[in-house]
């Protein structure tokens, strides 16, 4: 029996590595023993891609690289390493060369866009009082409250950082689309998922926080990618 690859999980804006907590436990149930969750600084695409590349470089064998939200842009930029065997996008950006997360967002503004505001230092925050309804309306109000309090704001300028050579052009990909997403418009997710020609698109009746509200389905998609690229 072949050993399972490592899974490297990449978070997006307004959250950290702990947003993957439920998926991590589901992957553990599926027999994955090498699971790593990157903690990105969210200061620039270059910084985040480099942090992700460094973690992938520590893995001696094959890697399934998974990105949620802006983490999809990060894995697109960082996923060309030889040991990355598959990319999995979870309600995520998948920009093409010369595109940015911000540019794609402008094509169809998400429902929660009015709830974002920069602070005096240039960090972009999601109003904590609006976090539950904006980001994770299919979780409990208490879970939304904690996510809002512990959110990790990106530098707003990161939204404008362009991808150079997207890894999804070179690696097999999978995409999970959230049909009730208020942070990345479902229309944008559909367009991106069609463009990258994934092995499969998994559509879930989910918020942006599908990794927390549907961890069983998300982990199963990651497992599918791992098995098909073994």
TrEMBL record:
<feature type="domain" description="AB hydrolase-1">
    <location>
        <begin position="7"/>
        <end position="220"/>
    </location>
</feature>
<dbReference type="InterPro" id="IPR000073">
    <property type="entry name" value="AB_hydrolase_1"/>
</dbReference>
<dbReference type="InterPro" id="IPR052897">
    <property type="entry name" value="Sec-Metab_Biosynth_Hydrolase"/>
</dbReference>
<protein>
    <submittedName>
        <fullName>Hydrolase</fullName>
    </submittedName>
</protein>
<dbReference type="Pfam" id="PF12697">
    <property type="entry name" value="Abhydrolase_6"/>
</dbReference>
<dbReference type="InterPro" id="IPR029058">
    <property type="entry name" value="AB_hydrolase_fold"/>
</dbReference>
<dbReference type="GO" id="GO:0016787">
    <property type="term" value="F:hydrolase activity"/>
</dbReference>
<keyword id="KW-0378">Hydrolase</keyword>
């Amino acid at each position: 029996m072949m050993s399972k690859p490592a899974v490297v999980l990449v978070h997006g804006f307004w959250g950290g590595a702990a947003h993957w907590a439920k998926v991590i436990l589901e992957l553990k149930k599926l027999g994955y023993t090498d699971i790593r969750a990157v903690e990105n600084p969210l200061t620039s695409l270059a910084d985040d891609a480099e942090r992700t590349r460094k973690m992938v470089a520590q893995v001696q064998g094959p890697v399934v690289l998974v990105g949620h939200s802006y983490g999809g842009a990060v894995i697109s930029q960082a996923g060309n390493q030889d040991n990355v065997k598959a990319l999995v996008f979870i309600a995520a950006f998948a920009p093409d060369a010369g595109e940015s997360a911000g540019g794609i967002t402008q094509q169809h503004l998400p429902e929660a866009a009015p709830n974002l505001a920069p602070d005096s230092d240039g960090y972009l925050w999601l109003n904590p009082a609006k976090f539950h309804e904006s980001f994770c309306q299919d979780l409990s109000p208490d879970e939304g409250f904690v996510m809002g309090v512990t959110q990790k704001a990106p530098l707003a300028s990161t939204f404008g950082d362009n991808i150079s050579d997207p890894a999804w052009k070179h690696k097999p990909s999978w995409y999970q689309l959230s049909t009730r997403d208020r942070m990345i418009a479902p229309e944008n997710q559909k367009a991106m998922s069609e463009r990258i020609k994934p092995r499969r698109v998994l559509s879930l009746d989910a918020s942006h926080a599908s990794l927390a509200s549907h961890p069983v389905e998300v982990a199963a998609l990651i497992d599918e990618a791992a098995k098909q690229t073994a």
